[in-house]
Write a structure and sequence with these properties.
With about 70 residues, the chain is α+β, with helices and mostly antiparallel strands. The protein has a domain of about 50 residues. The protein has 3 helices and 3 strands; from the N terminus they run E-H-H-E-E-H. A 3-stranded antiparallel β-sheet has the order 1-3-2. Strand 2 and strand 3 form a beta hairpin. It is elongated.
Length: about 70
């Protein structure tokens, strides 16, 4: 019987930066903090898109300011 394995959606850092958006330093900082998952394929770094979506979901929401009623 064959086991089903989930395929990972991987992109190069260039595309990952366009989805966050950020620079190289911020992207690799997020990887080093464990907030974004990355894999190595030889010399190539591949970023997991699911981890980018999870990172976006973890960001705090900005609450709207209450409206001030003028007299």
């Amino acid at each position: 019987m064959q086991e089903k394995t989930a395929s990972k959606r991987l992109v190069l850092p260039r595309e990952a930066r366009s989805r966050i958006p950020c620079g190289n330093t911020k992207l690799y900082g997020l990887i080093n903090e464990g907030r974004i998952v990355a894999y190595k394929n030889g010399r190539r770094t591949m970023i997991d898109l699911d981890s980018i979506e999870a990172y976006h979901a973890s960001l705090p929401r900005i609450a709207p300011k209450p409206k001030v009623m003028s007299k």
